Amino acid sequence: MNTDHKHSITVIGLGNLGQVLAGTFLDQGHRTTVWNRSPGKADALVDRGAVRAATAAEAIAASDLVILCVLDYETVREVLTPAAGPLAGRALVNLTSGTPQPARELAAWTAEHGAAYLDGAVYAVPQTIGTSEAFVLYSGSLNVFGTYKDQLGLLGKSTFVGPDAGLASVYDIALLSGMYGMFGGFFQSVALGDSAQIKAAEITDLLVPWLKAAADALPGFAREIDSGDYATETSNLAINTVGLANILSATKAQGIDVALLAPLHSLFQHQIEQGHGAASLARAIESLRRKAVVG
Ligand SMILES: NC(=O)c1ccc[n+]([C@@H]2O[C@H](COP(=O)([O-])OP(=O)(O)OC[C@H]3O[C@@H](n4cnc5c(N)ncnc54)[C@H](OP(=O)(O)O)[C@@H]3O)[C@@H](O)[C@H]2O)c1
Fold first, then answer.
1. According to the model, what pLDDT value does residue 115 have?
2. How confident is the model at residue 7 (pLDDT cuts 50, 70, 90)?
3. What is the average pLDDT across 16-31?
4. Per-residue pLDDT for 139 more than 60?
5. What pLDDT, in 10s, does the model give residues 146-169?
6. Which residues contact 61 (CB under 8 A, 6 or more apart)?
7. Is 169 in the pocket of ligand 1 (CB under 6 A)?
8. Which of 131, 153, 170 is a domain's end point?
9. Whether residue 276 sits in one domain with residue 182
10. What domain range includes position 147?
11. What is the pLDDT of residue 291?
12. Which atom of ligand 1 is nearest to the CA of 97?
C-alpha cells in the first residue's frame, strides 16, 4: 500500500450513514474524497472540505482506503463494476449491510481486481457514529484491518471476527435474529394486553425490566449449548412446554393470533417427543439444528 495516501480516505455512498462516515473522517483532518449517485448529497461535505469525485472510479483512484456504504450488495456491484480499473492496490471496506455469501463473492471479485477486501457490520445509527455506543464487526483482510485500525476506530469500537469475509454478516444476522425475536415477543405481549384494554405503555413498563432480568439466563444457556450438557435441576423443557401451551390457549381465548409463539411451542414439543423433557430449555436449539422440523 502507498503510505503517502495513508490519510486519504474515500467514501462512496452518501446516504444517511455514509454522510456521517465521511464527516467523521473530515472532522479528524483526513483528506476525504466523496462520491454519491445523486451529487447534491456531497454539497455539505464539500463545504466542510471534502473533495468531490466526478465518478466512482475517480473516487477509488483518490485514496488507498475506500469505504463503501450504499443501499445493498446489488448496488455495490452496480457501482463497482464500471469502476473496477483503479481498484488494484486499494483496500476496500464495505459497510453496506448484506449476507454472508455475497460478501464472500465480493471479496473474491475484489481480489481478482487486485484489491483487498474487508467487510463490516455496523451497529450504530448515524447519530452514534464515533461515540462509545457504536461498534463495527469486521471480517476479511486482517491486513486491511490492521493497516487502517486508527481510521476505522474513529467510527466506533472495531472488532475483527475472522478472515472469512462472510463472517461479519453471520454475526450480524445472529444479533439481528435475537433482536427480532425480542420484538416478536414484545408484539405478542402488547397484543395480549390490548385484548384486555391494557395500554402498550403500561405493559412495556413491566416488560422491559422483566426482559432484562430474563436476559441474564442466556450466558448459562450458551454454556450448556457449547458443552452439549443439558442436565438441569431447574426449569426444564417439560415444565416450559406446559407453561407455553397455557400461554397459547389463553392467548387464543383472548382472540389473539399465536402465530409468533406457536413455532416455539412446536420446537419444545419436538424435544419432548425425543425424550428430552427433563433437559434444560436450552436443548430446544437441537431442534433448530435438525432444520425443517418447524415450519
Ligand atoms: N442508517 C443506519 O442507521 C445504518 C446502520 C447500520 C447499517 N446501515 C447500512 O448502511 C447502508 C446505507 O444505509 P443508509 O442509512 O445510509 O441508507 P440510505 O440513506 O438509504 O442511502 C442509500 C445510499 O445508497 C445509494 N444508492 C442506492 N441505490 C443506488 C444505485 N442504484 N446506484 C448508486 N447508489 C445507490 C444512495 O444514493 P442516492 O443518494 O443517489 O440515492 C445512497 O447513497 C445500508 O446497507 C444500511 O443497511 C445503515
1. 98
2. confident
3. 97
4. yes
5. 999 999 999 999 999 999 999 999
6. 86
7. no
8. 170
9. yes
10. 3-170
11. 60
12. 45
In a domain, residue 43? The reply is yes
Q: Is 78 in the pocket of ligand 1 (CB under 6 A)?
A: yes
pLDDT of the residue at 234: 86
Q: Does a structural domain hold residue 295?
A: no
What percent of the chain is predicted at pLDDT more than 90?
94
Task: Point out the domain boundary residue: 151, 170, 189.
Answer: 170
Pocket test for ligand 1, best of 11, 19, 70 (most atoms within 8 A of CB): 70
Please give the distance, rounded to the nearest whole angstrom, from the Cα atom of residue 17 to the centre of ligand 1.
Answer: 7
Judged against a pLDDT cut of 70, whether residue 120 lies above it is answered with yes
Number of domains making up the chain: 2
Mean pLDDT of 191-207: 98
Distance between CA atoms of residues 22 and 26, nearest Å: 6
Report whether residue 122 contacts ligand 1, using a CB cutoff of 6 Å: yes
CATH number, residue 36: 3.40.50.720
pTM: predicted TM-score of the whole model, two decimal places: 0.89
60 part of a folded domain: yes
Q: Is residue 251 part of a domain?
A: yes
Same-domain pairing of 191 and 162: no
Bridge partners of residue 136, in order along the sequence: 122, 158
